[in-house]
Specification:
Shape: globular
Helix content: over 70%
Strand order of the largest sheet: 1-2
Structural class: mainly alpha
Radius of gyration: 19 Å
Distance between the termini: 23 Å
Number of strands: 2
Length: 322
Amino acid sequence: MIGRGYFWLVAVTLLLALTPFVIASNTFLNFLILVLIIALAAQGWNVLGGIGGQTSFGHAMFFGVGAYATSILQIQLGMNAWLAFVLAVAAGGLFGLAVGFLSFRAGLRGSYFALVTLAFAELMRVLANSMEFTGGAAGLLLKLDPGFWNMQFSDRASFLWLALAFVFVSLVVAQRIVDSRFGAHLAAVRENEDAARALGVDVLRVKLKAISISGAMTAAAGVLYSQYFLYIDSAIGFGLWISIEALLAPMVGGRGLVLGPLIGAFTLHGLGEMTKGIAGRIPGIDLMVFAVVLIVVVAFASEGILGLLRKHSARLFRKGGA
């Protein structure tokens, strides 16, 4: 089963990597890059909220920490983009550890933890909007200087492969978590925290490790966003939009499943773009689509697209065996 899991990760990654050779449209490549950035942030949410069962409404706090950290380090300290990336991802992990310690140490769980994460994200947005070193309301603008060492590329295909490499790493990390003892502990905490504690699981340690990994992954998505668009402000970095998309993608694709965030990100943004093409550029039309998709998933496919496919494939297999 482990081999099959990794096979699908490699197969999907190779398929996406070959896309620029088939479709060279800049519009389509822009779409793919944004989907991959969202999928990376959603995988971060999935580790904590899907595999670990700790629902967060404020993953924008990690996304913004990564985006702002790499921008500040490059603009104000003149640091190399790759070193800034490493430090920004570490900052996301440490920030997750701090938020987790304050929340889980106080015994917050369920809706209480979800609301606390939302409050942290809003607090970070207000601070980023008022601090001088973050650029205030004007935000931060990275210098355009294409080159590998600056993590900037003159063609979109190269950045697509870079984003895909990070997404693949996140998929492998998530798969290893699922297959590991730590993943079993996370699942136990998700199903029944009190029972897991009674069986000897260090619940606080497991949760802190999960939110640290989650924060680092989501911060990496923030770094990719700032490196691609070369601009970040408080509404983008710590905005509600990224918290919503990081949460919706795993729920639509398959919460707790490794490929769920990627499938969900493609589904949501694919439907959003199709709707825009049909209905025109009506403000907020994509959010309306997201809301409808979420209602349909909750009502008819609570396990998401992959969960639904897995259930039907298992049913067909049983019929074939009979």
